[in-house]
Amino acid sequence: MFGSFLKSCALPAALALALAGAASAAEPVPLLAQTLVRTQVAAETAVASEAIFTGDIQAQAQTTVSFRTSGKIAERRVEVGDHVTADQVLALLDPQEQRANLANAEAVLTSAEAQATQARLTYERQKSLLASGFTTRSTYDNAEQQLRVSQAAVESAKAALGTAREQFSYTELRAGVAGIVLSRSLETGQVVQAGQSVLTVAQDGPRDAVFNVYEALLAGPPASGTVDVTLQANPDIRTVGTVREIAPSVDPASGTVRVKVGLKETPQAMSLGAVVIGRGRFAERKAVVLPWSALYRWRGQPAIWVRDPATSTVEPRVVAIERYAPDTVALKAGVKPGEEVVIAGIQFLRPGLMVTLAEAGR
């Protein structure tokens, strides 16, 4: 009796399931169950990329200052950051040796002049005696020779005195140019050699904005040939410069190339060492601009999904990136104008999948 009861209950349940299945087969599949995408027709537009880099202000010319003679530093008169003039004495050497050489040269000159005076008097006397016939020709010739030797000795002594005076003047260190002291390596009591660098002076005059940029950036110079330079501490202070010098080699430590931009005008606030920002706008190029949502990664390379309007199927397409923007990406290769690119719903796609375009607002 219990088995017949179960059979009587199972028949209505099976009938209800069959009816429900038939009803579901008759109803259309809801739109949300299909793969919905939103597309955009690719079109070329002119894009101009802008490079932004930071650097600092430097002098176009720097002078390395050194003593022209060896000695012990007796006095230092400047510090880093001081502004100096061309004839200003920056440091002094102990001049004892040079003073002694100068005194010796003066004594040698005095002796040579005295000998020259004596030789001239002897020559004049022998000349007078020769005219009167009271001396011989050979004696006269000897007197004339001694006069010439003594005169040459005077000239030599004068030259030696000039050299000694010049060496004495070398005990005073002068920059020779007006500018700002950038660095120093001298202290009182230090012994220096002739030609040893002790000071570096940034000459007054034109200034450079110096930037370290990646080598790839130099492949396309700015369209206008100028670079806008802005003071980082105060963006209202700005000027314009042109590329003046590009280093011929890459810095092995940073992998960058040093570029010097000559400033046409240097605002007073852009002092030496001030941090500046350079902006260079490059020439416009044709590229397809798409929103970030269209970019996909296919087999390790950047790609997009292209929809075929005839079959409504999608296929991945590897692309080349021109540049990235905050909300868009510019493509320089991989997609042709007029093609339909998927910009929304790419996370559900696979090659050859048939998709449906979403209605506006969905």
From TrEMBL:
Domain Multidrug resistance protein MdtA-like alpha-helical hairpin: 102-171
A single Gene Ontology CC term: efflux pump complex
Positions in coiled-coil regions: 102-160
Molecular function (Gene Ontology), one example: efflux transmembrane transporter activity
InterPro entries on file: Beta-barrel_RND_2 (IPR058792), MdtA-like_BSH (IPR058625), MdtA-like_HH (IPR058624), RND_pump_MFP (IPR006143)
Domain Multidrug resistance protein MdtA-like barrel-sandwich hybrid: 63-198
Any Pfam family matching the protein: HH_MFP_RND
Sequence ranges assigned to domain CusB-like beta-barrel in this UniProt record: 211-271
Keywords: Coiled coil, Signal
Signal peptide positions on this chain: 1-25
Cited NCBIfam families: RND_mfp
Family, as annotated: Belongs to the membrane fusion protein (MFP) (TC 8.A.1) family.
Record-linked PANTHER family: HLYD FAMILY SECRETION PROTEIN (PTHR30469:SF38), MULTIDRUG RESISTANCE PROTEIN MDTA (PTHR30469)
Protein name per its UniProtKB record: Multidrug resistance protein MdtA
Organism: Methylobacterium gregans
